[in-house]
Amino acid sequence: MSKIVEFKSKKGPVYVQVEGIPSRSTRGQQPAASAGKVVEKAKKSFEEALESAKPGIEAALDCIGNLVQKPAEVEIEFGLKINGEAGAVFASAGAEATFNVKLSWKKA
After folding, report:
1. DSSP secondary structure string, 47-108?
2. For residue 53, what are the contacts with CB-CB under 8 A and spacing of at least 6?
3. Domain segments of the chain: what residues?
4. Is the pTM of this model over 0.70?
5. Contact (CB, 8 A) for 88 and 80
6. Nearest to 42 by CA among 54, 30, 50
7. First-to-last CA distance in the chain?
8. CA-CA distance, 31 to 23, in Å (whole number)?
9. Where does the pLDDT of residue 36 fall: very low under 50, low under 70, confident under 90, or very high at 90 and above?
10. Stretch 43-56: mean pLDDT, rounded?
11. pLDDT digit string (tens) for 65-95?
């Protein structure tokens, strides 16, 4: 069952549709409205939720930055799922996550 979770943000509330959270909060979310409403409040702020993805992003960039021939441009595409309790997690299809990496070298 999907629900709308409200994350607090420095810029104002951010509403995210999340899948698979139980009805009536049992895992860190608190109801934001009366019974029958679909909005719940997240345990973390939106910024805190996104913070949890930074180590993975930085590790990927560090690996690419350690190449002998450094690319002129780096593009990494990945999906993030936002969870009211866990924060941002890399999205997966089944048991694996997919990252698209594009590296560009320019001739001198």
Report:
1. HHHHHTTHHHHHHHHHHHHT-SS--SEEEEE--EEEETTTEEEE--BTTB---EEEEE----
2. 80, 87, 88, 89, 90
3. 2-104
4. no
5. yes
6. 30
7. 54
8. 10
9. very low
10. 89
11. 899 988 999 898 888 888 777 778 888 766 6
